[in-house]
UniProtKB/TrEMBL annotation:
<keyword id="KW-0813">Transport</keyword>
<dbReference type="InterPro" id="IPR008011">
    <property type="entry name" value="Complex1_LYR_dom"/>
</dbReference>
<keyword id="KW-0999">Mitochondrion inner membrane</keyword>
<comment type="function">
    <text>Accessory subunit of the mitochondrial membrane respiratory chain NADH dehydrogenase (Complex I), that is believed to be not involved in catalysis. Complex I functions in the transfer of electrons from NADH to the respiratory chain. The immediate electron acceptor for the enzyme is believed to be ubiquinone.</text>
</comment>
<dbReference type="InterPro" id="IPR033034">
    <property type="entry name" value="NDUFB9"/>
</dbReference>
<comment type="subunit">
    <text>Mammalian complex I is composed of 45 different subunits.</text>
</comment>
<dbReference type="GO" id="GO:0005743">
    <property type="term" value="C:mitochondrial inner membrane"/>
</dbReference>
<keyword id="KW-0679">Respiratory chain</keyword>
<keyword id="KW-0597">Phosphoprotein</keyword>
<protein>
    <recommendedName>
        <fullName>NADH dehydrogenase [ubiquinone] 1 beta subcomplex subunit 9</fullName>
    </recommendedName>
</protein>
<dbReference type="InterPro" id="IPR045292">
    <property type="entry name" value="Complex1_LYR_NDUFB9_LYRM3"/>
</dbReference>
<keyword id="KW-0249">Electron transport</keyword>
<feature type="domain" description="Complex 1 LYR protein">
    <location>
        <begin position="19"/>
        <end position="76"/>
    </location>
</feature>
<dbReference type="Pfam" id="PF05347">
    <property type="entry name" value="Complex1_LYR"/>
</dbReference>
<keyword id="KW-0472">Membrane</keyword>
<comment type="similarity">
    <text>Belongs to the complex I LYR family.</text>
</comment>
<dbReference type="GO" id="GO:0006120">
    <property type="term" value="P:mitochondrial electron transport, NADH to ubiquinone"/>
</dbReference>
């Protein structure tokens, strides 16, 4: 089974036929959602789409099943919507990447007078940074120092 945390281009597991069929079904539903604006019209076409998939769900001959899958991929490709609907926070959506997470090292760039306003926090932070460095050195060893830089 493929790791869902890895990007698609780094996954090495091969998809089963059932996974490919499920993927095709989901992409076809998303395409129908982009094509039909009215909810009732979308649901009607989703029902027709489900009937198409259910028609061949018990196919035992793998060659025919693969042929049906390829025909479905071709049909989806031929009927793709010119402007597919995207989820707002997904890549390609209008809110993707809008809220930027500030990296932790930015706190190290604060002026000492700014840090003085939060003495307990920065004291605890320094302790945690030291603990992190000790754990790193315990696991990976000390970094090699180069004089030629």
């Amino acid at each position: 089974m493929a790791n869902p945390l890895l990007p698609k281009h780094l996954q090495t597991a091969v998809k089963t036929h059932a996974q490919k069929v499920c993927s095709l079904y989901k992409r076809a539903l998303r395409n129908a959602m982009s094509t039909y604006d009215d909810r009732w019209l979308y649901r009607y076409h989703a029902t027709l789409l489900r009937a198409k998939f259910d028609q061949h769900k018990d196919e035992k001959d793998l060659r025919k099943a693969k042929m049906y899958l390829e025909e479905g991929e071709k049909e989806l490709y031929d009927n793709l919507h010119y402007q597919p609907r995207k989820f707002a926070y997904s890549p390609g959506g209008i809110n993707y990447g809008r809220s930027v997470t500030v990296p932790d090292f930015v706190l190290d760039l604060w002026h000492p007078l700014e840090k003085a306003r939060y003495p307990e926090y920065f004291a605890r932070r320094e302790l945690r940074k030291q603990e992190y460095i000790e754990r790193w050195e315990k696991k990976y060893g000390k970094p090699i120092e180069h004089d030629d830089y």
